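Milestone 3.1: sequence recovery, worked example.
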């Protein structure tokens, strides 16, 4: 026990001398959590506060085009800014290039005429299906000039599809209203009352959004609940920059050889490093979680909701930290120089984070990359945290992810011991 304690004291002193490593282990993940959470929180609130600026060039002079603009504005996703009637495609492109807006639409001059024509044709078809005589006048239902949507190329495809769907819903509302008016006029020989029109168009089935919960406590997920666990894991695994380099330095300096001449075993030194750096990972998690709970509200960010299953949270954090420590030691054992350990360690962590679901949700991964997800220890870490933070699960719910994580950790330990034996270091 004394040998273990003395080795731990030595490892703590070595760690405290590594100022750059301490900065990477604490300052960098804290900044990442704050910056990424702030950015993604803006994305989560896009429908409420941070609306997309939409420029509208209305080249149509009739009422239906104004109704379309009102319908677009009522969607709640856009901040509509109308341009002069003479604004053409070149003027719209210039404004988008000048970053005045992210989106723009041009309503063609024949918009109202064509919508009226299609609405009357639809009403006539409906009347004929009812056994009534529709308007015998032939209506020109030829294709009109399409509504042109211009967008900044930096907008992601998913957001563009959401915008397209919102615009299509507004357009469908205008066309449906006009068809309803024509149909009512043909049957009753009088215009559709405004009150009845509102009642008929507003009678929509509501959609209740119910996030999945394991214990019945439905918490609305936010950017904090997603990002704090993810970047906590990233911070833990980034101790490879300090721990991996420390193992390499001891190999290069001959510390391993000197230990073999003493009445001790290098496995004691390995155990010391694991305990010391496991404590570091726990402190990392404590610091980042504390920032999410107490600092985020002062930054107008959602506060982190700590899961009720505190024991399960501690166990998941311990398993994550142990896996991170095991990975760092394994890298240090096989690396020949400190530069190799730092370079390969940093790049590999970024790759494992990308395929593991920290940067891109794992459910969107498809094809051959889907099979690689299960090989990333960070995937099992983030899934275990999500079981607790997002679904309100208990220890029994997180075990399905803890068991594969522990298995990967034991495999890393085994590979490390094999590597030490092949290098005659133990």
């Amino acid at each position: 026990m004394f040998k273990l304690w003395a080795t731990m004291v030595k490892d703590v002193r070595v760690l405290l001398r590594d100022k750059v490593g301490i900065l990477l282990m604490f300052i960098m993940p804290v900044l990442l959590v704050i910056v990424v959470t702030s950015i993604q929180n803006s994305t989560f609130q896009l429908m409420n506060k941070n609306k997309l600026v939409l420029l509208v060039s209305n080249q149509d002079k009739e009422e239906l085009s104004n109704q379309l603009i009102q319908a677009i504005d009522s969607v709640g996703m856009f901040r509509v800014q109308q341009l002069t009637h003479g604004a053409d495609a070149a003027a719209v492109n210039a404004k988008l290039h000048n970053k005045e807006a992210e989106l723009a639409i041009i309503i063609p001059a024949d918009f109202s005429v064509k919508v009226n024509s299609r609405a009357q044709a639809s009403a006539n078809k409906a009347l004929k299906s009812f056994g009534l005589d529709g308007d015998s006048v032939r209506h020109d239902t030829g294709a009109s000039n399409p509504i042109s949507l211009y967008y900044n190329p930096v907008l992601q495809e998913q957001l563009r599809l959401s915008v397209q769907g919102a615009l299509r819903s507004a357009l469908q509302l205008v066309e449906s209203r006009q068809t309803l008016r024509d149909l009512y006029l043909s049957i009753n020989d009088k215009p559709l009352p405004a009150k009845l029109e509102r009642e008929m168009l507003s009678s929509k089935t509501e959609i209740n959004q119910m996030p999945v919960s394991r214990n019945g406590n439905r918490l609305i997920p936010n950017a904090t609940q997603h990002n704090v666990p993810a970047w906590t894991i990233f911070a833990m695994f980034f101790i490879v920059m300090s721990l991996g380099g420390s193992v390499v330095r001891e190999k290069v300096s001959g510390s391993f050889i000197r230990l073999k001449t003493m009445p001790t075993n290098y496995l004691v030194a390995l155990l010391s490093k694991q305990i010391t750096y496991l404590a570091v990972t726990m402190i990392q998690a404590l610091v980042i979680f504390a920032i999410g709970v107490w600092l985020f509200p002062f930054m107008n960010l959602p506060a982190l909701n700590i899961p009720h299953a505190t024991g399960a949270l501690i166990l998941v954090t311990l398993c994550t930290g142990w896996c991170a420590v095991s990975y760092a030691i394994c890298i240090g054992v096989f690396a020949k120089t400190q530069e190799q350990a730092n370079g390969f360690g940093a790049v590999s962590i970024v790759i494992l984070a990308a395929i593991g679901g920290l940067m891109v949700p794992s459910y969107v991964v498809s094809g051959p990359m889907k099979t690689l997800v299960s090989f990333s220890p960070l995937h099992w870490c983030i899934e275990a945290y999500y079981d607790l933070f997002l679904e309100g699960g208990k220890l029994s719910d997180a075990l399905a992810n803890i068991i594969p994580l522990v298995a990967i950790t034991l495999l890393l330990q085994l590979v490390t011991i094999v590597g030490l034996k092949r290098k005659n270091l133990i």
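The first strand starts at residue 52 and ends at 58. The longest helix spans residues 157-188.
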